[in-house]
Design goal:
Layout (H helix, E strand, L loop, with lengths): L1 E5 L3 H12 L3 E5 L3 H8 L10 H7 L4 E4 L2 H6 L3 E4 L14 H15 L5 E5 L7 H14 L7 E5 L9 H6 L4 E5 L2 H10 L7 E4 L1 H32 L3 H9 L20 H14 L5 H12 L3 H9 L7 E5 L15 H10 L3 E5 L4 H7 L4 E2 L3 H5 L3 E4 L15 E4 L4 H6 L2 E4 L3
Parallel strand pairs: 1-2, 1-4, 2-3, 4-5, 5-6, 7-8, 9-10, 9-12, 10-11, 12-13, 13-14
Antiparallel strand pairs: 6-7
Helix pairs in contact: 1-3, 5-6, 9-11, 9-12
Bound molecules: uridine-5'-diphosphate-xylopyranose (UDX).
């Protein structure tokens, strides 16, 4: 199939590159010239494990442009993969989705033949049918379901393993407006062996939000249980293992610690809470999930103070700044509230992260950045905030270690060791 992808962020680029790997011809559209140039040279503008290799191997089937006309004229399906950032009140900002829909609509006006428009960006239930579809109709002067098709196909890609998540999904969700759109997406995904869920546009949108909210709920739930475990001298990981064997529960996403961050969970849960308010419904569970997650990182400071009661002037080594390992992404990283609090209490912060220091520097220029993980160990106490592989090899003997991510190597060797929930 000939596919165009609007937006070359991590979702758009991974989607485009993987569709090319599956044998499709792909045209990526972006407004950023530098990104376009890089993609055309076979260099991914973002770091994502395995992406460069797949891009290089399928270079003859993938190209990038800023030209919407060229992209829509030369493809049969267009995926909207632009960002949906948060407004200050947590609600979703649809500006980029709307712009993309308008542009595609304008191009459809001059295109002969049927075309399918698929929303992949994470949008609240109702958006594809009530915002995107009318914009497409207005700007094209054509009729959805007759002259062009509309579908919603959410992504479930984790940063760091997005290529694998795309190629080996647990399920594919196809929300469709018209039967022809469903048929085309069925064909596009025909080589996948996982279950395919076919549903209404709005149900597909909700499946994405509900999935992320549920995963975040599992983490906040086990963190709340973990806080009790800590007080009672119980290891929350043993509890998670014991619970996880129940097939109805499952062990995944029950790793307790200092909570969840990243570009999706925080933004999506805030959007869902603010949406619930707008439609006059309650979101008690989801709101509590967010509240637990706000408090959880500060447990590190409480535990630290057990051993170093006065933080003023003390040196605290911080291991890990990224929101999870194998990424340079610090969005909503749990390191942010922890470092903020350390600075508030006038501690001297020495930090190291294998990939995220440049990003963290922009937010916290005032802390010391170490050139190696070892260097942070020369401190009054050490906090482990991200579970990077290389932190396992450090020598923690003689150290006071407060661990937010369950690094067993530190647990087994440190002089004084405190885990957040174990
Ligand atoms: C998430 C979803 O998993 C993915 O399906 C969606 O498309 C985008 O959002 P991502 O943000 O890349 O992916 O990270 P993920 O691996 O899910 O981790 C999110 C956060 O939860 C991280 O901060 C991680 O450290 C934390 N986490 C995860 C836990 O604290 N405990 C766990 O058991 C699992």
């Amino acid at each position: 199939m000939n596919i165009s992808i609007i937006g070359t962020g991590y979702v758009g680029l991974v989607t485009g590159v993987c569709f090319a790997k599956l044998g499709n011809k792909v045209i990526c559209v972006d407004i950023n010239e530098k990104k376009i140039e890089m993609i055309n040279k076979g260099v991914p503008p973002i770091y994502e494990e395995g992406l460069e290799q797949v891009l290089v191997e399928n270079k003859n089937r993938i190209e990038a442009t800023r030209d919407y006309r060229y992209a829509t004229q030369n493809t049969d399906v267009t995926f909207i993969c632009v960002g949906t950032p948060s407004e200050d009140d947590g609600s979703i900002d649809l500006k980029f989705v709307e712009e993309a829909a308008e542009e595609i609509g304008k191009q459809l006006r001059n295109k002969d033949g049927w075309h399918l428009v698929v929303v992949k960006s994470t949008v609240l239930p109702g958006t594809t049918g009530e915002v995107v579809l009318p914009l497409l109709e207005r700007h094209s002067g054509k009729k959805a379901g007759v002259d062009f098709g509309v579908a919603m196909n959410p992504e479930f890609l984790r940063e760091g393993i997005a290529v694998r998540d795309f190629l080996e999904p647990d399920r594919i969700v196809i929300g469709y407006y018209d039967d022809k759109s469903r048929e085309v997406l069925r064909k596009l995904y025909s080589s996948f062996s996982c279950p395919i869920v076919e549903t209404l546009l709005s149900a597909a949108e909700m499946i994405k939000y509900a999935s992320n909210a549920f995963l975040a709920t599992k983490i906040s739930f086990i963190n709340e249980i973990g806080n009790m475990c800590k007080k009672l001298g119980i290891d929350a990981y043993e509890v998670a293992d014991g619970m996880g064997l129940d097939k109805r529960i499952g062990r995944a996403f029950l790793d307790s610690g200092i909570g969840w961050g990243g570009s999706c969970f925080p933004k999506d849960l805030d959007a869902l809470i603010s949406w619930a308010k707008r439609i006059g419904e309650e979101s008690n569970i989801i709101s509590s999930v967010v509240e637990v997650n706000k408090r959880q990182p500060l447990k590190m400071i409480d535990l630290l103070k057990k051993h170093v009661p006065e933080l003023k002037g003390k040196t605290v080594g911080v291991l890990g700044l990224a929101f999870k390992p194998n990424t340079d992404d610090i969005r909503e990283s749990r390191a942010i509230p922890v470092v903020k609090q350390l600075l508030k209490e006038k501690a001297v912060v020495k930090a190291f992260d294998p990939k995220a220091m440049e990003n963290f520097k922009k937010m916290f220029p005032q802390i010391r950045y170490c050139s190696s993980a070892e260097e942070t160990l020369d401190s009054d106490a050490v906090l482990i905030l991200t579970k990077w592989e290389e932190f396992k090899k450090l020598d923690y003997t003689e150290k006071i270690v407060i661990d937010g991510r369950r690094l067993l190597e530190a647990k087994n060797t440190a002089k004084i060791y405190e885990g957040v929930c174990w």
